[in-house]
Every structure is written in structure tokens, then in C-alpha cells.
Amino acid sequence: MNTQTISDLDVTAPFVVQPKPKSRLVYRHSIPIRLMHWINVIALSLMFFSGLQIFNAHPSLAWGNYNNPDKPLLSLEARDGPNGSLIGITRIGNRDFTTTGFLGVSKGADGQPTPRGFPSWLTVPGPGWLSMARRWHFFFAWVFVLNGICYVGYSLAKKHLQRDMWPTRSDWRGIGRSIADHVRFKHPHGEEALRYNILQRLAYLIVIFVFGVGIVLMGLAMSPRMDSVMKPVVEFVGGRQAARTIHFVIAWAFVAFVLIHVFEVLISGVFNQLRGMITGYYKIDGERPKPPEVVATTVPITQAEENTHD
Amino acid sequence: MTDRRSFLRMAIMGAAGLLVAGCDQISQSSWGPKVLSKAEGLNRRVQALLAPSSAMAQEYTEADISPTFHPNGTTMPDTDEYQTLMANNFKDYTLKVTGLVGKPGEFSIDDLKKLDNRTQITRHDCVEGWSAIGKWQGTQLSALLNHVGVDPKARFVVFHCLDNMDEDTPYYESLSMEEAHHPQTLLAFDLNDKPLPVPNGAPLRLRVGRQLGYKQAKYLGSIELVESFAKIGSGSGGYWEDQGYEWYAGI
Predict the structure, then answer these.
(1) pTM of the model
(2) Hey, which bits of A155-213 come out as E strands?
(3) What is the DSSP code (8-state) at residue A161?
(4) What is the largest CA-CA distance in chain A?
(5) pLDDT number for residue A4
């Protein structure tokens, strides 16, 4: 909000002071959206950390329906080093990388190097404990799925998906410019900031409908009971171990999305973005556009609703 | 630059460490695991709804059989009873059937072969994450249950095994009557057209098509039909269940 007036300015300043551009708060994210966003943060984080603990029980990936111990796609192994030491090896295809301290071998609860896939500071629970990790994972899997169903239902009902996420023809035409803007970290601050750009739209749609749906399906495809009714899905993706590999890859794709998402939040005004997702109010530059008198005076709420991204 | 990078690394490790430590507190608490395990009941009910009890596990072809069938858990039971049976190539082996049945009895492998048999090439999914495919031949558990006659009060079939875990805890498992009567639930005596090898559970093991590996009890000694398994082992229905794994092992 611009509360500064000319009289506040130091008139003796040796350069011309630009009057601060006007700005205003817009109600952007409704309560359900904000709530579902933060529930998702918790559910995704805990599923990721407990998922890495589950992975540690068999830190190896394969394609097909069974594992060939000699030919993993990826494996985190511990090998004997000189003088009784342990060497952590990350094997990708036929290539070995030494990753002692992080992957394959890292400090256990007693501080001694221990064979384990991912280190204890990335797993829930910290120490090797498969059964407890499964409890965390399945509990938050339900939170994630129910939250996701509510989100999609709400967004469809409120036309959030149709209006704010489905790319329009002009969005597609502007994709080149949007990429260039992102690469140069250029972000709009005016009215335009309220609209999801084409890259945002595509990212959100892919994360929700490809990553989200995909990771749940691949999780279910690992369930022997569900496989009795999901045979075509399991065969289509290349077998149960292939489903496990895809589940793992999508989990890391989620991490990549979160890192980019947080980076964009940081560079596009972290305080404003956080306020937007916590209180709902988001600040944009410029004055409220002057609508025809009749609209502005009789239905002022319409104005706020039009700017609501929910 | 290095300073900033190491600061960033410390910050990430610190934040992750705090979260992990907080979760470990919950895992150790008395209420945490109870709340988290609420999902098990939901998994069981919803999966039973989506995948009805009659649904069959995928069966594969000979070409799909995995080159090795990784034996997990016990691979050589060291009990005297088992060692004596093994010394005579299991010729004196019998499976005892006890509990809530009309005609309790003992069955040799040859006796079992006279009941309804089934051959199936199915996948074994370990709770650890790996899978293997093998060709199993065995007696349908439902055939044996029909033969001995099940008391209507019986709700679970408990499998007592000849191998000990942690030196003196016998391995055991249990199935619901529904799963016990599934056509793919076998008392298997052959793996890949050969008598079951010792590491894979000789002379007789359980095969369940739609549950995880720890349900597929090896080295079967006796089966017991019960109303409740609360007084067996630590009361959770199986050796691994007593260690905190889900009794419903469908996912």
C-alpha cells in the first residue's frame, strides 16, 4: 500500500526521488486452496522421507517383473575398503561412483559408517526401520490422495482449473517470451502477476495429472492385492519392478518441481508470495482499474472474485 | 563460495535432520504408531472393495520365470526336529492339522498330493521391494480344509513353522478364511518342477498369490484353525507382524 506522500520525501536529496508506484492487495488464494497447499507440503515431504527409508530396504532398481541382482539399473551398495573400512558405491548401469558418506555408506546411529542407501538425515525414521517407514508412508499416502481429490474437485467446481490452468491459445503463442522471461528471472509485478503464465500452467497441470496420478498408480501397481485387478497397468509399464522404478523417478521429479517452485517464490518476492499462500492477500503494482461506475458501486465483491486464483 | 555452499548444505541437512528427529520422536511415542497404523484398516477395506476376494493374481509363462529365486529369512533351520527330518530327506515328514476342525490329522506329502493340486507361475513380492517369479506346484489349501472339515467358529488359519527366528522364536503366520480358500493359496511342495529346495522352505511352504513375501511361511510344521490369534506369539498374527509389520500384507 502506498501511504507515502510528497511531504514525507526528503526534498534536499541530491537526486530526483521517484514517487513510489502505487500498489494494492488482492485476495488471491481462498482458504481451501491455502489449506490444501500446506497439507500437501506436509504429506509430500513425509512420503518422500519415508519412501527413501522404504527404498533403503532394497536400495536397487530394476526393470521388468523381477530383479536380476547382477544387472540393476541403479543400486546403492557398500563394499569392503582397505583396513576394514566401508566404501559407498552408487552404481548406475555399468558405472560405479564412490559416494561414501552420502549414498551406500553413511553414519549410523552410533556414528560409525554403516551400509545404507540414503543417509539417516534424509529418511523417516532416521535409523533403519522398514515397518515404521511403511506406516508413515501409507498414512500420508491417504492424506495425499484425499487432499488431491478434494483439490481437483474444488478447482473444477470453482473453474480454477479451467480458467487459471488450462492454457489458452494466446498463452501458447507467448511460450517463447515466457521462457525468455523465466531464464532472465523477469517476473511481472502488475495485473499480469495475477495470471498464471504458460510455463506455470503447464508445470501445475503436469505435476497434478502426470506426477500426482502417476506416482499413486505406480504405488498401487506395487501392491500384490491391487495387481490382481491392475494386470494391464502393470504389464503396460513393464512389470512390477518397472513400476517401482517409475515411482522412484517421479518422487525425484516432485523434488525437482519443489526446488524450482521454491526458487521462483524466492526470486519473485518471497514475502509477498508467502503472504499470498498464508493470508490469501497478494500485492500487485498499479491502481485498481476503474470499472464502469455501476459495477464498482453495486457489486464490489465481483472485483475481488475476479482476481481470486482458486 | 565454498563457505556459502557449505552453509547451504549445513542448513539443508539441519532442517531435514530436525524434521527426521521430530518424526523419530513420534515413531517412539505410544500414540504415534497407533495413529499412523489407522491407514492399515483403510488399505485392507478399500483394497477388498477394489480387488474382490475372487480376483486372481497374475500368472506368468515359463519364459518369465526368474533365473534365481532369492531365499530370504531362514535358509537352513537349525532345530533338531528339522535336522532329523532333513537327514532322512523328509521321508518321515507329516503336516499336522489341529484346532477347530472336524477331523484333526497328519498328512504326508504323498497324502497331500492326492488332494486337489494346482500348478501356477506367480510372482513373489518381498516387503523389502524385490520380486521373483517361480513355478509352484502344491495342494490347494481349500482342498485340505474341506477334507478335514472346518468348524464354523474358525476365523483364521495359523501356520506354525519348523524354523526359529532370533534363536528361540518359532516363525508363524496366519491367513483369513477368505484368503485361505482362494484358489491360488497353495501348500507348495515343488518349485520350478523340482522338490522345494531347503533355502526356499522344504519340504512344504505356503504360497499366497496376493500378499507380501513374509506371509508365505516356509518349513510348515502344522496348521491350526483358530477363532483368534491373540494368544499365539505376541498376538499380532505372525512373526513379522509381532515386529510391527502389517497383518494385512496386500500392499
Answers:
(1) 0.89
(2) none
(3) I
(4) 85
(5) 46
With CA atoms as reference, report the closest residue to A1 among A271, A296, A283: A283
The reported pLDDT for the residue numbered B2 is 60
The Cα B157–Cα B173 span in angstroms is 8
**From CA B39, how far away is CA B56, in angstroms rounded?**
24
Q: Lowest-confidence range among A75-79, A81-85, B85-89?
A: A81-85
Which residues neighbour B78 within 8 Å (Cβ) at sequence distance 6 or greater?
A: B163, B164
CA B174, distance to chain mean position in Å, is 8
Identify the DSSP state of A38: H
- Does the distance separating the beta carbons of A126 and B21 come in below 8 Å? yes
The number of angstroms, rounded, from the C-alpha of A273 to the middle of its chain's C-alpha atoms is 15
- Give the separation between CA A96 and CA A98, rounded to whole angstroms: 7
Pairing mode, strands B220-226 and B95-99? parallel
For chain B, positions 24-53, list CB contacts with chain A under 8 A: 24, 27, 33, 35-40, 42-43, 47, 50-52
Q: Which chain B residue is nearest to residue A142, measuring alpha carbons?
A: B39
ipTM of predicted complex: 0.93
Q: Is B233 exposed, middle or buried (0-12, 13-18, 19+ CB in 10 A)?
A: buried
